Task: inverse folding
C-alpha cells in the first residue's frame, strides 16, 4: 500500500507510474514478467485541487452598478467579477472589523490585492468580491483575487487590469437596470431618514419624491482624495470624531439636477460619508425651479463627470 499526500497548491495533473517484476523462482529468465502501469490524478481530485480563481476580462469596475464605470480611484469601492472566488454557496455581504477597528482585508477566506496591496473587503460570493482600493499609484493597475487567503491551499488569480484615476465619481443606485437609468441612492435630510423615489419603488421601504428647495443626500464612491485624508478601511466617524466624521473632497466639485446647476452656496458638502469606509456623500439643495419628474443628476469633480443616467424623483408639494 502506498500513502500519498497531495500538494497544498495546484501544480497540475499528477502522474503515477509503477513497475513490478513477477518471477517464478526457477533462477531462469523463462516464466518471469515485468508489468507496468500508469495513472493520472487531476487537480480536482486532489486535496489541494480546487481550481484557482479567475477574473473575467474587464471584470474590475467601480462598485456602483450601471452605467458601468471601468475605472477606479484610491479610496473607492470596486467590484471584481469572475469565478471560483469562494466555495459554492458562500454569501457574505457584511464586512468585519479588524483589531484596529478598520474593515478587514480578509473576508470568508478571500482577499483582493490592488497593485500588490491588500484591500479592505466588503462582500464575497463565488463570482464577485467588493473591496476598497487602498493607497495606490494612478494609471494602469492590476487586481488579483486570492482564494483560501492565508491558508496552505491559497490560490491566486491571474492579474486583471483596471485604471485608477484621481477621481472617478459615480452614484450608487437603489435599483440597477441594463440601460443605466436608475434611481440614485438618496435620502431626505430633514426629519426622519426616508429614501427619495416613487412610493413603492422597493417593497418594504418608504420612498417619497424630493421637493424643490429641500436639502437631500446622495451617496456614491470614487470621489477622490479628501482633506483630512481617511485611511483605507477606516470608519470616518471613528478617526475624525471632532469633525463628525466629515472630510471634504480636495477637488473642485459641482452638481446639476435636471440640467440645472446647483448654486455653490447650496452644495453644502461633498466628501466621505461618516458611517462607512469607501462611501461618499453629497448634501445639496434641489433647485427651486426644478420641474417634476425623474431628473438626471451629474456630479463633476476636477472636470470628471459622473455617468449620465442615474436620477432623483422630484415633485412639487
Result:
Amino acid at each position: 500500500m502506498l500513502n500519498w499526500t497531495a500538494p497544498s497548491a495546484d501544480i497540475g495533473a499528477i502522474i503515477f507510474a509503477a513497475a513490478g517484476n513477477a518471477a517464478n523462482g526457477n533462477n531462469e529468465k523463462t516464466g518471469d514478467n515485468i508489468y507496468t502501469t500508469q495513472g493520472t490524478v487531476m487537480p480536482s481530485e486532489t486535496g489541494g485541487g480546487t481550481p484557482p480563481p479567475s477574473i473575467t476580462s474587464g471584470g474590475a469596475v467601480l462598485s456602483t452598478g450601471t452605467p458601468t464605470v471601468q475605472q477606479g480611484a484610491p479610496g473607492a469601492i470596486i467590484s471584481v467579477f469572475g469565478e471560483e472566488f469562494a466555495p459554492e454557496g458562500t454569501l457574505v455581504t457584511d464586512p468585519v472589523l479588524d483589531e484596529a477597528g478598520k474593515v478587514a482585508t480578509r473576508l470568508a477566506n478571500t482577499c483582493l490585492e490592488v497593485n500588490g496591496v491588500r484591500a479592505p473587503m466588503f462582500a464575497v460570493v463565488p463570482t464577485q468580491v467588493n473591496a476598497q482600493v487602498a493607497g495606490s499609484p494612478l494609471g494602469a493597475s492590476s487586481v488579483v483575487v486570492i482564494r483560501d487567503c492565508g491558508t496552505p491551499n491559497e490560490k491566486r488569480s491571474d492579474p486583471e487590469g483596471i485604471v485608477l484615476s484621481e477621481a472617478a465619481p459615480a452614484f450608487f443606485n437603489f435599483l440597477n437596470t441594463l440601460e443605466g437609468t436608475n434611481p440614485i441612492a438618496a435620502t431626505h435630510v430633514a426629519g426622519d431618514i426616508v429614501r427619495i423615489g416613487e412610493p413603492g419603488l422597493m417593497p418594504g421601504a418608504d420612498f417619497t419624491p424630493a421637493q424643490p428647495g429641500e436639502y437631500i443626500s446622495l451617496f456614491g464612491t470614487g470621489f477622490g482624495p479628501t482633506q483630512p485624508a481617511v485611511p483605507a478601511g477606516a470608519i470616518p466617524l471613528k478617526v475624525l470624531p471632532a469633525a463628525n466624521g466629515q472630510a471634504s473632497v480636495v477637488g473642485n466639485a459641482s452638481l446639476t439636477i435636471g440640467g440645472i446647476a446647483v448654486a455653490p452656496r447650496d452644495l453644502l458638502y461633498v466628501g466621505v460619508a461618516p458611517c462607512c469606509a469607501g462611501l461618499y456623500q453629497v448634501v445639496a439643495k434641489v433647485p427651486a425651479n426644478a420641474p417634476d419628474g425623474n431628473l438626471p443628476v451629474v456630479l463633476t469633480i476636477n472636470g470628471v463627470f459622473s455617468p449620465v443616467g442615474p436620477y432623483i424623483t422630484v415633485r412639487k408639494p
Notes: Helices lie at 236-239. The radius of gyration is 27 Å.
